Amino acid sequence: MEAVERLAQAIDRNSGIDGLHPTALPRVQLIRSSRRVDAIHELHRPAVCIVAQGSKRVMLGDRIFEYDRRRYLVVSVDVPILGQIAQASEDEPYLCLRLDLDPAVLSALWLESGLPEPADSAPGPSLMLSDATPDLLDAAVRLLALLDQPDDIPMLAPLIEREILYRLIKGEQATRLREIAHGESRLRHVTRAIDWIKRNYREPFDMRQLAAHASMSASALHAHFKSVTRMSPLQYQKQLRLQQARGLMLGEAMDATSAGHAVGYDSPSQFSREYSRLFGAPPLRDVARLRELPPSFQGSAASTGAGFAQN
């Protein structure tokens, strides 16, 4: 049996029902869906996503990325995306393993590996696809096998996680992963700007403050930020505001006017216009549609605060 088939069995066995499933393995979550799911706006954290069955399509700005059992996805920064489970059924559900990326683990691994430094380059798009190799899939299978041996997780899970990351940094993703690991890379400067926006998204936008926090000129930050996220810092803040408001309406039953005000909108009509433009429907109709999804996918669409999104 191929490694990808063993991985599909392991994900299915340890998830059981549709939704997002945290595991006893640090930074590892499993995703299962027995049906296609229309586009959902999410704020995706840095992670590697390995699909064992089915496929998913994500949109970042004007670019579309589709990944399945042949290709894995790497996300390098917190970034708003539009995600859609494109291929799934009762007989062959969508099955995915997600491993969140820890910059400290990546940095230590790079130092210990002795691998050469990739050539310096401007940061590229925060989403990247690569071919899933047998070695990578085999390591993912062994990682999930530890769920059947929980006493071994503290000792062996970090070793297998490092193996997975090692496979990644030896491949074509090396430059992007090095940017995540390196404390003074231009991507990390963009990450600092993103963190500042996330903490201050309710406040009026101030490019000078943002650039000072990121230790870059305003023009350089704007250019690198747009290269990574496919949107300007102001557009990024707007999407965070609207996603946060969506979460308040869906998760806390807040009305649209109150939710808009809570995230920094003084004008209810402006909030409704911008919400409809992003999500494709006015607030009440959009939230009603989301309530028809499985509860865990509602949680993904309603992600707020530090936990913004899942895959």
UniProtKB/TrEMBL annotation:
Against Pfam families, the record matches this protein to: AraC_N, HTH_18
Under the heading InterPro entries, the entry gives:
Homeodomain-like_sf, HTH_AraC, Tscrpt_reg_HTH_AraC_N
Alphabetical list of PROSITE patterns matching this protein = HTH_ARAC_FAMILY_2 (PS01124)
Q: What SUPFAM superfamilies would the database entry show?
A: Homeodomain-like
The residues covered by the HTH araC/xylS-type domain are: 191-289
Q: Which UniProt keywords apply?
A: Transcription, Transcription regulation
Q: PANTHER family, from UniProt?
A: ARAC-FAMILY TRANSCRIPTIONAL REGULATOR, TRANSCRIPTIONAL REGULATORY PROTEIN
Put simply, this protein is called: AraC family transcriptional regulator
- Identify the species of origin: Lysobacter gummosus
